[in-house]
């Protein structure tokens, strides 16, 4: 199916674009009353994500309502551990929780590499429905969590300020850690390939907890697995978003990801000097700017675009949009990107 708006894909590939494409992490849901209405019709987040027709509906909502240049499938990075045999719960106002965690080599041995066709068909079905209903309006982004980030949740049991249990395993049981990371990586590759077969036009890997590792640990326990994923996926553009990974840009630039995401603490000039001109950069407005008034949002958006300059760029926030932000303020951001990048 020919895309009517392929700005995102062209920008990711380094091709000429008429203006900077724009989308938002966590755009599918959270801020939109239309999303909350759909979610209220089911028991909660997990049922919504596992109901393909509803997942497709909330995936498309931001395209219709906000005017973004891409849709991103409504799902969660933690579907991978569940498909491997470690189920999780989504606790209201607390986030994900794993009743059982990985503590030993025996626990790792119990896990399987995910059988995507059996365990994650609801995601691929949602992608198929979304692609059909989008009818080529914009590209569809698929995604997965990076192996280290998934590892962190599986060992820690949920969110954490320090992920001290997960980090401790890297030091006390490095061989077991690599065994678990390999299983996660193989599952993730199968999952991303299935998303692409179902219709995803681009995939993004989220390394949400990259910043809690030292540079040395990141090079040992993250980079090799990110490389393995990148090398295995060759038929669509790929994005890596490693939050707070300030020391790792030189390493990330050597991997076969066309786009590198920046959080709001990162200076686009500095990153560009490190990674060179052959990568597209994505980001990186502070989500909290969107609490401000229209003119403030426009001013900071313009400033962000000027920092990225005329090189390869996809506009986005530096992290996911926060759930209590006014949708009209998100529209101001999107409109400002479109307006300023046309000049």
Q: What do you see in this structure?
A:
- The chain is an alpha/beta fold and 343 residues long.
- It has 17 helices and 9 strands.
- The strands form 2 sheets. Strands 1-4-5-6-7-8-9 form a 7-stranded parallel β-sheet, sandwiched between helices.
- Strand 8, helix 16 and strand 9 (313-317) form a beta-alpha-beta unit.
- The longest helix has 25 residues, at 174-198.
- It is globular and about 60 Å long.
- The model has no long low-confidence stretch (mean pLDDT 96).
Number of helices: 17
Shape: globular
Unreliable sequence segments: none
H/E order of the elements? HHHHEHEEHHHEHHHEHHEHEHEHEH
Q: How many angstroms does the end-to-end distance come to?
A: 30 Å
The helix content, as a percent range, equals: 40-55%
Give the percentage of residues in beta strands: 5-15%
Strand order of the largest sheet: 1-4-5-6-7-8-9
Coarse structural class: alpha/beta
Compute the gyration radius: what is it? 19 Å
Main pleated-sheet profile: 7 strands, parallel
| Strands, total number | 9
Q: Give the overall average pLDDT.
A: 96
